[in-house]
């Protein structure tokens, strides 16, 4: 959020982020407590904690509920509210066995996407106190986010909420199979055991290849991915089945082999 959407948070809201770096995006309560130590000069002010679950750049990693509770406790002691970017919180729930409501009970507000894992074509839901949601709706109008004819999308969102969570384990299983295949085709580019949900990141730079070059080769071969944080990212979702994964793996191997061959020939 601090570096995406053309730094919108700073431009529209005047927010400055203090970023904390955790192992695969997972923060510890000790890290948070150190960050919240009062500034002796009263210059630096922290008035909101934010965590992401699952953590995208961390590879779709899941924040355990006990870790979130510990962070919540630190925030309460410092009188700082906690916001959860839960775009894929249902994936976190499916992977950990922790109900979404249990995660929600540890934060002051959260957002989750109806699209992405749940499969709606568009939409997100913001949850919090009545006063918070009322203020958020006003802010949405101020920045041009009002939408009157949204009923058809709301209907799709309801279906996503009812049906989407049931099939997320299938996405996770497909991602793990994909990760195994990618690792076999490009040893050293990823560790399949770290794939917890529906995201697979391959660090092709670690094996001497250029991420955007690999990306373009994959696209030319009919396999779509993107580059996030310098790694080639794959996602599994309702439109990707086990057969698609099996077809993708040999394409990946061929592209990696060709890229390596060309690099050796230079």
Tags for this model:
single chain, 266 residues, alpha/beta, Aspartate Aminotransferase, domain 2, Aspartate Aminotransferase, domain 1, 2 domains, four-stranded mixed beta sheet, three-stranded antiparallel beta sheet, 10 helices, globular
Task: Describe it.
Helix 2 packs parallel to helix 3 (65-77), helix 8 (168-185) packs parallel to helix 10 (242-265) and helix 9 (211-220) crosses helix 10. The mean pLDDT is 92. This protein has 2 domains: 5-165, Type I PLP-dependent aspartate aminotransferase-like (Major domain) (Aspartate Aminotransferase, domain 2, 3-Layer(aba) Sandwich), CATH 3.40.640; 167-265, Aspartate Aminotransferase, domain 1 (Alpha-Beta Complex). The longest helix has 24 residues, at 242-265. By secondary structure, the chain is of the alpha/beta class. The strands form 2 sheets. A 4-stranded mixed sheet has the order 1-2-3-4, covered by helices on one side. It has 10 helices and 7 strands.
* Number of distinct beta strands: 7
What's the total helix number? 10
Counting helices, strands and paired strands, the structural category is alpha/beta
Instruction: Report the top-level CATH class of the largest domain.
Output: Alpha Beta
When the domains are counted, the total is 2
Rg over C-alpha atoms, rounded to the nearest angstrom: 20 Å
CATH homologous superfamily title of the largest domain:
Type I PLP-dependent aspartate aminotransferase-like (Major domain)
Q: Please tell me the CATH architecture of the largest domain by its name.
A: 3-Layer(aba) Sandwich
Distance between the termini: 39 Å
Given the C-alpha coordinates, what overall shape results?
Answer: globular
Helix content: 40-55%
Low-confidence parts = none
Run of helices and strands: HHEHEHHEEHHHEHEEH
Strand order of the largest sheet: 1-2-3-4
Largest sheet entry = 4 strands, mixed
Query: CATH fold name of the largest domain, please?
Result: Aspartate Aminotransferase, domain 2
- The average pLDDT score comes to 92
Strand content: 5-15%
């Amino acid at each position: 959020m601090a570096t995406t959407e053309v730094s919108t948070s700073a431009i529209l809201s005047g927010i400055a982020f203090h970023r904390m770096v955790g192992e695969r995006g997972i923060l510890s309560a000790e890290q948070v407590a150190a960050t919240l130590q009062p500034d002796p000069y009263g210059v630096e002010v922290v008035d909101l904690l934010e965590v992401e679950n699952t953590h995208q750049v961390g590879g779709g990693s899941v924040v355990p509920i006990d870790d979130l509770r510990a962070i919540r406790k630190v925030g309460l002691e410092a009188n700082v509210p906690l916001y959860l970017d839960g775009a894929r919180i249902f994936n976190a729930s499916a992977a950990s066995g922790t109900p979404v409501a249990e995660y929600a009970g540890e934060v002051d507000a959260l957002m989750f996407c109806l699209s992405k894992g749940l499969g709606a074509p568009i939409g997100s839901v913001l949850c919090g106190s009545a006063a918070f949601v009322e203020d958020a709706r006003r802010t949405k109008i101020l920045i041009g986010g009002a939408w009157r004819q949204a009923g058809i999308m709301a209907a799709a969102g309801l279906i996503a909420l009812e049906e989407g969570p049931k099939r997320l384990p299938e996405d996770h299983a497909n991602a793990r199979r994909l990760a195994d295949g990618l690792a076999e085709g490009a040893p050293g580019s990823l560790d399949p055991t770290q794939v917890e949900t529906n995201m697979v990141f391959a660090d092709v730079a670690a094996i001497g290849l250029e991420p955007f070059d690999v990306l373009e080769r994959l696209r030319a071969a009919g396999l779509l991915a993107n580059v996030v944080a310098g790694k080639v990212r794959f996602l599994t979702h309702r439109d990707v089945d086990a057969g698609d994964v099996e077809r993708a793996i040999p394409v990946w191997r061929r592209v990696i082999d060709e890229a390596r061959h060309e690099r050796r020939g230079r």
